[in-house]
Every structure is written in C-alpha cells, then in structure tokens.
C-alpha cells in the first residue's frame, strides 16, 4: 500500500507540469492582448504598448516566459497581479479559505440531503417517498444556480430581511455572521449536487439490495434497518465516494457562478475577473492551485475507497 | 493652574471630542459595478477607481455641476502667459500621514505622473515641461505649448497630489496603501470584496464630511447590487441597467439621482485601419451616411434604455458649454438613405459587420439597429465579442463597424482629439483628414470657449457630416440609486460620487 501511495504522489508532479505548460499554451490562443487592456486610453500608442510588454515580459518568447514563471514558482513566488499589483500567492491565500468554506458547506448540504434521500428512495422504491425524492432531485439538478440565487436573495434578504444578500465575513471574525453570509450560496451550490448524490445513492442502493448477501442477511432474520445500514449501504457507498470526490472538484467550478451572484470574494470570482482582465499571473496561479486541489482530492478519494473496501488494501 | 498646563489639556479635550464625534457619525456603504484597479493615481485606469479616488485623494482643482473649474487643493490660478500657469495652494493642508501638502509635494506628484514607468497620466499632461517651486504655497507650471485642456486635466487623477514621503517609501506598491490629502484615509482593501476608508480628522474641509467610514463594495451583477440596496445592506449604488429604474422609482424607500453624463456611445467606422477598411462601407461616405440616416436614435433609446439617455450626433455632451448647438441630432430618413445607396451604385442588401461588447444591453441595442438599418437596405451582422478581445480587434482594425463608448472628460478635447485626430491614440478607425487635425490642434491652443466651439463645429462638419468618420448615437446618463435617508447628495456630470455635504439620517 505504501508503494502505491508513493507512486500516486509521484504522479502529481508531472501532472502539474503538463498542466502548467498547457495553461501557457492556451493563454497564447486566448484573444485579447493584455498590453492593450493595461494601456487603456493609451492603447493606440505603440510606445506605451512596448513599455508594458517589456515590463510584463510579453515581448519575450513564450518558452522564456514559461521558464521565468516556473523558476519563480519553484521559489514559492507566483508573481503579482498585473491589475492590482498584489502578490498572487497572497491573493490565493486570501481567497482560497473563502471558497473552501463555501465548498465544504455546500458539500455537507449536498451529502446530508442527497445520501439519506437516496437511501429512502431505494428502500421505498416506486412508492410516494421515492417519487417525492426523485422530483426534488430533478428540481435540484435542473434549476440554474443563477436564477435560484437571485430568487433566494429576493426572498430571504429583500422581502424577509433574514439574511445578508451578499458579502462574506471570515469564520474567524464572527462565526454567526460568517454562516449567515454563506448559507444561501452554499445551499444554491449544494442543492444541485444533492440531486446528483440522491440519484447515484439510489441506483447503488437498489443494486446492493438485490445482491445475494442482502437476501442472506434478510433470511437470517436481521432487522431491515440493519440490513440497509450495515450491509447494503456500505457497499453502495463505494461509487458514491468516487462521485463525491469528482463533485467536490465540480463544486469549485460551480463556485465561479455562485460567487458572482452573491459577491463572495473567493476563488471563482478571482479567476473570472482575472480572465476578463487578462491578468495572466493570477490565472496561472489559480489554475495550478486548483489542479493541486483536484489531484489531492482524487488521492483522498482513493484512500477512502480503501478504508471502505478492505479488499482493495491487499491489491 | 496656568495656561501652560491648560493648553495641552484643551488640545487633548478637543481631539477627544473630535474622536467621539467621529464615532457617532454613521458609516456609508456604496455598491460599485466592478472592482477598481490599482489605487495609485498615476497608474490607475478604471472609472470605478475614480469614484473611490473622489473620497480618497483631493485634486488641485475640481469641477462643479456647470463643468466650471473650481479650487480644491489649490485656491487660485492665473496664466502668466499662454504657456505659464501659476497655482496658489491651500494653506494648512496635510496628507493622511501627517506630512504637509505644499508646493514641493505638487512638484513631486506631477513629476511622478510624468516620469513613472507605466504612468497613465503622462498622456494627459504631456504638454507639461517643468514644475517650479516658487514658495511653499506657490508652483509655476511651464508648458511646451499653449494648451486649453491642460487645466481641466488637473481636475482628475493628474491633479491628485500624493504624499511624497509615502510614495517614495512604497515605490510601485503605493497603490496598495495610498496616502493622499482627501476627506477619507485608506484603511484596507480586500480584492473583489471591499475598499474601506475612514474619516480623516485633519482634512481641510472636515466640517463637511459626515461619515465615519465609507466602504466600497464591488457587486458585478446589477440585480444583486439593487437587492443589496433594497435590503439595506448598502446605502448607495451605481445603477448600470436602466431596466432597474422603474422598480427603483416605485420603491418609496429609495431615491434616484441622475445627471447627463460627459460620455457617449457611437459607431466607429473602419475607414483606414487595414484590409477591412477597404470595402464599400469604409471607402464611400455616402454608404456610411445612409447607415446613419437609417438609425432612429430616439426609438433606440426608448426600447433599450427606457428613454433615459440623450440622443446625439456629436461627441460633446449638451452639459458642456462647448456643445455644438447647430449640429442637430440626425433625424431618421429612410428615403434619403435608400437614395444614397442607389447613388453609390451598390447592390442591396449591403452586408455590414458590427462588433459589440458582449453585454445584454449593447447586444439589444445592436439588434434594434439591425432591424432599423435592414429597412434601408443593410444586412447587419452582430459580432458580439468579449470586451478584451473587442479592444484588440479595434486596435488591429479587425472590424467594419464597432459600437463603442467613452466615459467622457470635462474638457471637450478629451472627447474629441484622441478619437478623430489622425495621431489620436484611440482613433481605431484610423480616420485621417489634415484639415480636421489642424482644427483640433488649433482648438487645443485656443483659450476662448466661443472660438473653440466654432473650431469644433467646423471640425465636426468635415469629420462627421462630410466624411462620416463616426456616428454618435447617445449620451448616457449617470444613474445612482440610494436610500431616502441619504440627504444632500448631488451628481456632477463626471458621474463621480462626492461625499462633501452628504448626510445619512
């Protein structure tokens, strides 16, 4: 198992390297010249453009830019934002906890709603509880985040005045306010994923409940509750855990939109603004860190796999 | 007890009273349409940044609602000759770090604007040759040539004076913690979340400042920004979507303040920028005139902008004393448009591409124009392009027509020269006419507003009525919505949010 873990860790570095080359290559394909954006009203002046390009190394060949960037990265320096001149590392450290908190809350909401709903749905297959759970799941998956977010703001902030409509308070500053500012976006973000969880848990549970060992357990006279939780659920959870790690990654992508609606200064908002402003160092930094998170999550997923299914540990 | 002991006590008591008073003052939260760029007056570029600067950094001069230049950090100015400007400074002004704002600081700041690498102010004060310190409260500015718009540049970021000590210490990172002489001092910035400013007790006009803290929050979505105002999470917002206006008018807790802005929206024709200028539209002004005559500006503004904006056919807004009154808004005339196309001998429908920044309202404006010009015989293809890509395409000449806007400057030169002068940095269509260049250069050197207006009228007759370099369409209004508890708020045509004299009940 340790050998396997080391091999997996060893894969991370080439993965990140390939990805970083890809970001640089794709950046070249992206229309819109950063120097022209930065030059603003002076954009027609070739001298101003040349000055900006020289300062940002945009006048050098792409491999040279990449080399310089990689060299700085190896020294822990992600460069600085061209637009606001703040170090990228600092920006990421500032924004990452915000999105992690939002993502984690959304994930908890998704699991707490989705998994039990899936179990109930499978246990009461083709009965009203199943139909209701399916209907809610379908609604969750098919409601656009953008619309749901605006509707929640109008209801809970404008009409009822219960929750702040946007913004973010760090949990270390005031945990109540922090929860108040993140609960709506977390629900919007987690709601859709709860539906996905519910559907997958239901399918996996139905599969597990039809297995021989479940029939044996029932024949032994075990109570249905024990059959479901101790025998069927444990096996049904394996594909759900895989899905969960993939969905955790998707949460980061979903955060892009949710953070825009609720004006949450997180990772999603950071990358959207950076792309629109062609603030390349921020885009590069955010993509590398996001990739690192993805890779780590998938590693955690594999480890959880082993914890749930002992047979994999021997492999 | 003698006076020697009483004096410091009195000072402490006064300071404590001042602090207590500041504590009692309310805070103000303002919703901006986007996150400002760097908060360094020399390097800043964005319009929203200027809104924050209005509370942070005072300028040598300001403008009033009639677009007249009024003193701010300066008290008076006089021209010794057309190339020499003497400015007298306000006495007793200090920067947020306690340093004195004096002639040396003015010399430092203007030199910084002129020489700092990447300065965006250089182009604005390029006529400045030298700054001389006459005495601690007097500076003499020597220009390379007479320049009518020069003084008005000092009413914006080029006129902002920064603390030399803080600027020297911070270097290029000054924008992370700017130190100026405005009504509020910088407290913190969390990128994309907020910029917090705090009342500066030693501000020269502190009696007129009635807030303890001001927080600027960027909220890009207009519906979410309005919801924040409606729920009481903000006290004042920029309104960017005119469709929000009827709802705001119905809400009794909210007020709307509007003002005719200095900017404009219009169509740039590519008449000389690369291969795409070589088609019939780029080469024949009759076709461009036909296109212009097919657009019903009034109807367009009614449909897309709730009738809020002001139709126009020139870059100088009606708010300006140099607005060319004789240049009337083009009335739509389909018969004349069709006749012009026949005269040009072109087969209809004439295919025309229009590049538009990819925003719902601009796309809608383009769609309305699409149906209007179709009646005259044009087949308009809308090329919705993301803003950064559109800018690049404009510079490279990769467009036929481009629906484009400008936030506007108090002096008309800032709305005209750079766009239709052959050496103008933002002349994306590469229009060039030596006679227009001569008239625009002459108006830069002319100080009499009446004579300048006549020069602009003649330049527009050639560049717009004859050559059809551009079609100007409308002057947008600046729209601000705020709680009715906010009193004394007024807008100046530049659209910035000035907090002097504003109170929250």
Describe it.
Chain B: Keywords: Signal. Chain B: Residues 68-426 form the Solute-binding protein family domain. The complex is a heterodimer of chains A (315) and B (505). Chain A has 315 residues and is mainly α. Helix content of chain A is 79%, strand content 0%. Chain A is built from 13 helices and no strands. Chain A has helices at 2-29, 34-39, 46-55, 62-74, 88-123, 128-142, 145-159, 175-209, 212-219, 224-261, 267-276, 280-308, 310-314. In chain A, helix 1 runs antiparallel to helix 12 and helix 10 runs antiparallel to helix 12 (280-308). Chain A is globular. In chain A, 38% of the residues are buried. Chain B is α+β, with helices and mostly antiparallel strands and 505 residues long. Helix content of chain B is 33%, strand content 23%. Chain B is built from 16 helices and 21 strands. In chain B, the strands form five sheets. Chain B has a seven-stranded mixed beta sheet with strand order 8-9-10-1-11-19-12, with helices on both faces. Chain B has a six-stranded mixed beta sheet with strand order 14-18-13-17-15-16. In chain B, strands 4-5-7-6 form a four-stranded antiparallel beta sheet, covered by helices on one side. In chain B, helix 10 runs antiparallel to helix 12 (360-376), helix 14 (413-420) packs antiparallel against helix 15 and helix 15 (434-445) packs antiparallel against helix 16 (449-466). At the A-B interface, helix 2, helix 3, helix 5, helix 7 and helix 11 of A face helix 6 and helix 13 of B.
Briefly say what this structure is.
Chain A: It is a multi-pass membrane protein. The complex is a heterodimer of chains A (315) and B (505). Chain A is an all-alpha fold and 315 residues long.
